[in-house]
């Protein structure tokens, strides 16, 4: 039978505070008898060593799991970065357009259609005043609208327009540099 000792001696032997020793008793790791608490020295040391070994095993498994999660997160990050670079390359090659550029091009097209339609009354006003019947005015308006629609039907996608938008948005060239280039040609 080993010696019965107080909390202060156990704490000193284990390199713990007295408070931590009391917590270990509360957690059921160590056992004490009586008031004031007395500990079987050999049994308490062995119980603490067993507890520390179990904790170390659990931490080792936790470390492996944490490392696995870290590697997975790193792989996910690298995959997302590669996907992002692939999207940038597709944009630069003209195989994909940003929503911002598409919105800008569609807005320009809508304003073009708007200006063509708003110009119709001014172009037909004089001719409409010379018409004698509603049928003549209708035919005149129909011909003018057909001309506007024919003009719109000739619209074609121009990849260079989108490439120019990308260069301007990325800051590779300023918008006024392009104006100077087009005035030189």
TrEMBL record:
It comes from the Bacteria. This is Protoporphyrinogen oxidase. It comes from Collinsella tanakaei YIT 12063.
